[in-house]
Specification:
The structure is a homodimer of 686-residue chains. The first copy, chain A, has 686 residues and is an alpha/beta fold. Chain A has 24 helices and 30 strands. The model of chain A has no long low-confidence stretch (mean pLDDT 93). Chains A and B meet through helix 5, helix 8, helix 12, helix 15 and helix 22 of A and helix 5, helix 8, helix 12, helix 15 and helix 22 of B.
């Protein structure tokens, strides 16, 4: 089906435009104009119920009136008429309908009902739908310009080998035009709209066996159909076709906007980070990084788990310009490496310059000279300590690219990849680099952004298919004792605990010594401390009875029991959590403990389950855990036991219990070798 | 002098080029070529001791051989010859010499000796020097092209009203060429090099009465001559000429590079932040933000202390595109404001669109239409809740700018300023916006960067002239008791303390009850805890004697006394510090206490002294202090007392003691109304 679907989507034999206007200044006037302008070779049927002719061509009254059933129908009619047209497409046996109209999920309950109608039509027929709210789908090779985006009124469409897919309709115009200005071409572009039927992932996946496409540029607003995106990403990795994504929603403000704009609920941003990383999709933070990053991604190998951190060398004819790249690289956690003494000696001998032992191979002193730049690059691209070379060229790049830009081009095919940033405006030199296949960047920020994204990228993780997502409600909460039973089954150490009925007048014999902690035991008061349901450091029987009485009076009569546990001491506290996300499925989370960690939002997330190496990475991700890793001669905590606990909790992803959420808070971390121990836990079933 | 200096720098009557080459492919061949190419109107004297003619013009053998003493000499000869030429300039009475050669401070002790020679020449004569390591100084109006930067080989030099000044020589070429591509012109550009004599600040200050300059673009690598920069910034603010700066060194890696590159020691980045903010200089993080930001800065009023946070409204024809700006704005702490119900009603009525109540005024549903965009902008630019409007235009901007770009232009002169980001590549529309004076941006990141920088900017703070900077050594440390004396004088509450000789066998009567803390008392063990010199919670006389003995045995015989203090309880701990920075002078610092705050590097810095409002801002800056501000119903700390303490410690900046550094760590913060109390202090005199 995929190949047939691809053909109906991107190179249909026949297309119809429902609602095609006679007025090219209107949005609905554009598709026919674009199709003719580009020279689409298939059959085109404009449909306009009120006119016999549009833009000088015969207009048909309806889809039913056409001499054939078109393969792909672009519906640019208003909402209600569009739904009618979709229904007709279904009846007639049209393969694909792309729907421009809005007024669906983003428009409240009424719109949701309209979406449901579209879904019903798909379910009842063989019709596949792109949209609604789709600005269209375009193939620059077949010239199937099924779009109403104003930026496609291009005299010279930039044909290339990239497929761009976007939740935002405007962005396909931005990518096309900005790409064109950089000599970057596209095989096709698609605005996926509300994804009522075909999702972004499914559309991309349908193109994977297209030999004319060798990379993907994604503009994401939501992870609505994460499963399809993941399937596509895995297949793309297997086909060695890189996928680069920009995703809106770093900020809460932006996520709030996504809700009102697309009707999609936006998840937290680090969930998106974890998901995309898990799929092996590289994520950039800048628009230019998205547009310029694919050539780099094509050649930077994926990082392997446990492999050494990739190492970058920087060579330049302008130290100030190069530092502009080093700064944003560092802020993204990518450090530039020092050349080894051997490499330094080789550079000195090859260039004749007394290059200083610094992270920057600074050739400024020589001015920009071909021989010197080439000699330095020849050494760097064969230096074993570097995985990637960044070449930063100063003012000579503008009018004298033969000096320091040509040597970069002449190193194409070298052992190590070179990426280039040119400090002045130097369009010709950039174009020459692009032609030669050298990844190049217009701004230091995009350069750093794309490099960091490429270096972070891994192979997609081979996970069992994602656990069926659970609805957030109705929920059932475990009480703490039930929660401990779950931890016991997972093999997670927890404090001994015994339950005592509220109202006892004599303390029973405890299976552990004082001091103890006493906590209200009930499923429905997860915030026990705030409710006055916790007493710590209780020292003896009398104090125990008094503590139980205070708790009873604080929490009210619905609580019947308290839980008693021996007090634990440890070096520090952490929070380990598990939950099933609506979009991406099971997640495991590790956070530093305490109020400061909460304020700093210092946590690490991964798709669950995770292995030990991944759990160790998570520990390294959480900055606050530095305090438990021997920071400033402090005693080190048992981080190995912590890693094992993260792994164990993450196994809930494949456990039978339908657990929606589990949280150990705190998990006490003892000194190295002494383990970790859970002293509170919360579990919610779905 | 300033006006005369300005003339000698930027529009000399006569110039000489020492070391001018006959070969235009060489760096030293460029200045004469550029001067002739641009049509410099003054007298030009090429000097080349080995040729009678260069580039077809008569060459002179030496400066002494010229028919007049030139006002400005650009010395492009190699290092030693350059020093000789400088000496000759001094002897002859040349006004300004600009020196290209390197091999000075960045080249170690030998280079420093060379710099000293240049300084001696300046001191002994009336000569002023730019450089060394200066790629030159250029005035695009007088056509004084005293530069060897390869990017100045421009057929059409973009003349404008901006002065660009840079520590990096390459950057003047980057700013010129990148500016030109955006229709941004310059009055002049200067590469200040090592600033052995004329500093960047002094050069800029000399141009302040130039009516042809109305804004400054600074590319900074160091704050070497902070005083001059501050003087300039104050005068620029008084003259209402905005100053926008990009400063390298956000990362430690970049600061390390600055050391090896320019020989300047780079300070910490938040010191630079504090200094620039204090001077009223706006700082951007992106290169495009620097190039595109000035038109915005010209019109955004400076924030007033205690004034409300400026409020931004965003209107768009593409929600996805607009969110690309909202995201980086939010990550820079700038939130987009909701329109009030009144404004929303006015927009709905004016546009006829049922705009949703969201932070984004989303006109997508209407397509791009002049009337609708204009109507929305008319409402927004008169809405009282907004200080700045951001208009984001989608694909129509490329070929149909009359739809949604022209309305922005037609609002020039409106009550509120509009800044524009165009989502597709749309050079013509951008040029039209620039011509109309509308701040416009090519990337969402630069747009957000410049807006955040402009909104943060304040009036320069009227401080007494900066305290003479103290050398970091020789230092004298106070012991803790002496340090308390200083706190007492500053009016900072501290724990009572009494000193006891080590070796006592009976505990003396204490002026406060047990439990107490016992600490080794000596100036030279500031890290008492690590040295085993602290015992806490000592409960009685016997324990006190035992604690003293343990401390004595840990810290050795050089320590003669211990300090005893009553134990303090509090809600939390902070660190308050003061130090005199080599570059910018006295600083006051506030940080959250404890190991996590150290790991997160959570602190706020200001130039000292500060007033109460500034101290309160500092408290708001430190994220960890949220924990003491009533976070999640926790008891609130006495943040007013904390603010007063910050103010008090910052007064060291104007105190008589030559204090180089003072640190209260920890300062215990008690519940609201109960004050704060210092329980340890460290003071270092200069």
């Amino acid at each position: 089906m995929s190949q047939a679907l691809r053909q109906f989507l991107f190179s249909p034999q026949s297309v119809a435009i429902v609602g095609q206007s006679d007025d090219v200044s209107k949005t609905a006037g554009r598709p026919l104009k674009y199709l003719r302008q580009a020279g689409f070779g298939g059959r085109i049927y404009p449909i306009n119920s009120r006119r016999k002719e549009v833009l000088g061509e015969r207009a048909y009254a309806s889809l039913a009136a056409l001499p054939e059933v078109p393969e792909h129908v672009y519906i640019v009619a208003p909402t209600e008429a569009a739904i009618e047209a979709v229904a007709e497409c279904g009846r007639l046996g049209v393969k694909v309908a792309t729907v421009l109209a809005d007024g669906f999920a983003e428009a409240g309950p009424e719109g949701e009902a309209r979406e449901a109608r579209l879904k019903d039509i798909c379910a009842a027929t063989h019709l596949r739908i792109i949209g609604p709210s789709s600005l269209g789908i375009v193939d620059l090779r077949s010239k199937a310009m099924l779009t109403a985006n104003a930026a496609f009124d291009e005299p010279d469409l930039p044909v290339g080998r990239i497929l761009a897919a976007s939740h935002s309709g405007s962005m396909i115009g931005a990518l096309l035009s900005r790409g064109k200005a950089r000599g970057i071409g596209f095989a096709g572009l698609v605005s996926v709209g509300n994804e009522v039927d075909l999702s972004l992932g499914e559309i991309c996946e349908a193109t994977l066996d297209d030999p004319g496409i060798d990379g993907y540029m994604l503009f994401l607003e939501t992870l609505r159909h994460a499963d399809a995106l993941r399937r596509f990403a895995h297949a793309a990795a297997a086909a060695n076709k890189p996928v680069l994504a920009y995703k809106l929603g770093r900020s809460e403000e932006a996520r709030e906007l996504a809700v009102s704009h697309t009707g999609a609920l936006a998840g937290e941003d680090d969930v998106a980070d974890a998901f995309l990383a898990d799929c092996g999709i590289a994520r950039v933070d800048t628009l230019d990084g998205l547009i310029e990053g694919l050539p780099l991604l094509k050649r930077v190998p994926r990082r392997t788990p446990g492999g050494r951190k990739p190492s970058i060398g920087v060579v330049t004819t302008t130290a100030g310009g190069a530092t502009m790249v080093v700064d944003p690289l560092a802020s993204r956690g990518v450090a530039v490496a020092m050349p080894t003494p051997e490499t330094l000696a080789r550079i000195r001998s090859a260039t004749g310059i007394a290059v200083k032992p610094a992270r920057l191979i600074d050739l400024t002193v020589a001015g920009a000279q071909y021989k010197i730049m080439k000699a330095a690059l020849d050494v760097l691209t064969t230096a074993p300590e570097f995985d990637l070379i960044v070449a930063v060229v100063g003012s000579s790049a503008r009018f004298l690219p033969e000096r320091a830009v040509k040597p970069i081009i002449d190193c194409t095919g070298a052992e190590k990849l070179i990426a280039a940033y040119l400090v002045p405006e130097a369009l010709q030199a950039l174009a020459a680099l692009s032609t030669a296949g050298v990844p190049n960047f217009r701004t230091p920020e995009a350069c750093a952004d794309a490099i960091a994204a490429a270096l972070r990228r891994r192979a997609p993780r081979a996970t069992a298919s994602v656990k069926k997502h659970v609805a957030p409600s109705p929920a059932r909460l475990f009480d703490e004792l039930e929660a401990y039973t779950l931890l016991d089954r997972l093999g997670i150490a927890r404090a001994p605990a015994t339950a005592i009925d509220i109202g006892v007048t004599r303390a029973p014999a405890l299976p552990f010594p004082y001091p103890v902690a006493v906590k209200a035991l009930a499923a429905d008061i997860p915030h026990k401390t705030e409710a006055g349901g916790v007493e710590l450091n209780v020292q003896d029987d009398d104090a125990l009875i008094a503590a139980i009485a205070r708790i009873a009076s604080n929490v009210g009569s619905r609580v019947k029991r308290v839980l008693v546990q021996p007090m634990q001491t440890a070096l520090g506290e952490v929070l380990v959590g598990y939950r099933v996300d609506r979009d991406v499925g099971p997640l495991v989370m590790l956070a530093a403990g305490g109020v400061l960690a909460e304020i700093y939002r210092d946590r690490s997330l991964r798709l669950a389950p995770v292995d030990l190496a991944t759990a160790q990475e998570m520990i390294a991700d959480v900055r606050g855990l530095t305090a438990l890793a021997g920071f400033r001669n402090r005693p080190a905590g048992d981080l190995d036991a912590l890693a094992r606990t993260v792994v164990a909790l993450s196994q809930l992803a494949s456990a039978e219990e339908p657990v929606a959420e589990a949280e150990i808070n705190p998990l006490m971390v003892r000194p190295k070798g002494e383990g970790v121990i859970a002293v509170d836990a919360l579990v919610r079933l779905s």
